[in-house]
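Exercise 3.2. Students should predict the tertiary structure of the chain below and write it as structure tokens, then compare their answer with the key that follows.

Predict this chain's 3D structure.
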Amino acid sequence: MNNITHQYIEVNGIKLHVAKQGNGEKLVILLHGWPEFWYTWRNQIPVLAEKYTVVAPDLRGFNLSDKSKGIKNYKLDIVASDIAALIPKLGFTKAYIVGHDFGGATAWAFAALYPELTEKLVVLNCPHPKEMFIGMKKFSQMRKSWYIFMHQIPLLPEFLYKLSLPMFFKTFLRGWMYNKKNFTDEDLNAFVAAFKQKGAMTGSLNYYRAMIQCKPNKNVFRNKIKAPTLLLWGEGDKALGKELSFNTAKYIEASYKVIYLPKCSHWIQNDCPKEVNEYLLEFLD
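Answer key:
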């Protein structure tokens, strides 16, 4: 962690905080989900940095990045455009895109909208956005995704989470993991601090609000993925049913592979870092 540098880069009129390590000729961008921030990739950054230039931004609305006002500013295509603007600012023409959870949804959108910028795509425990849309119509997934609907209520989720931040991460993140030793008290405190940043709770919840309340960019659903794609899926995911991954191949024109990790939760890169790192290095190579 000592070799990770931090900087702010302006894209689309906002400043993104990014963590960076490595000086490789190729760029890997790691996109976190909710309720995460760049630090969720702490086990991947130094390993990947031995070969690549690795950048893990705080997505807009999270931690130290700017928090745009307005729910519409958290649509997938808007967040993906931040990453598209970030790549040339880092001195590269394209990148390997790796995303988890909402970062995975952003990664799907990015690869669909910016094929010329996408070297390869890796998604961790996040279905293709269209499959998520289809899945949300089924009771089994609706029941698992109850929190998405709760997040639509103005102000109340912010109030409840702020009241219970340490316990929330102990229950929702560490509590779901199989390998609980991989989420230490130090890690927990880092997550709590990130979500105590001014505006971070509302900014992060606006991703869910934009998902339901804003009209999506149809090209995210329609455009086929042209980059080689790997989907990693922890089979113990309590938020997203494994069946959401079954039809992924039909959205991809390039080579595609899915790997299911048994005894691994939704928080796959935290829960099973060794396996995730091995699969990432093998695929990116």
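Discussion points: The mean pLDDT is 96. The radius of gyration is 17 Å.
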